[in-house]
Amino acid sequence: MTEWQHVGELTRQVAAELRVQRAALDWTQQDLAQRVGIPHDALARIEACGSSIDLDLLTRFAAVFALDPPDFLAAAIRNSEQRLRDGNLYLPDGSLDPVQVSVAPPSKEHLAMLRATREERKRQRGE
């Protein structure tokens, strides 16, 4: 995999994890966009893999999900690898299937883990 393909893959992994994290909280795109402080259409482009994010924005996303940026990235990669194991995300030509990447639902186990982690962090902070 070339370096530019790897960067594209990471962008897709982050976009998918944003959708997963948002779903875990039952937030709309508008809800998340307001919490992060970006326009709704910007978030829609990010989640659709039409726009990448910089480290500052990644940090803001992680913060609203009560995660450290490295934990958020690790979850994005781990979740993507799980989807690869569970189903074929690739078309016969080797490109990612946009349907699979865009709509792969989070597993119930992953959502439960996210909620438990969030509650534990809130408890640790005394919230």
Automatic annotation (TrEMBL):
<dbReference type="InterPro" id="IPR010982">
    <property type="entry name" value="Lambda_DNA-bd_dom_sf"/>
</dbReference>
<dbReference type="Pfam" id="PF13560">
    <property type="entry name" value="HTH_31"/>
</dbReference>
<protein>
    <submittedName>
        <fullName>Transcriptional regulator, y4mF family</fullName>
    </submittedName>
</protein>
<dbReference type="InterPro" id="IPR001387">
    <property type="entry name" value="Cro/C1-type_HTH"/>
</dbReference>
<feature type="domain" description="HTH cro/C1-type">
    <location>
        <begin position="18"/>
        <end position="72"/>
    </location>
</feature>
<dbReference type="GO" id="GO:0003677">
    <property type="term" value="F:DNA binding"/>
</dbReference>
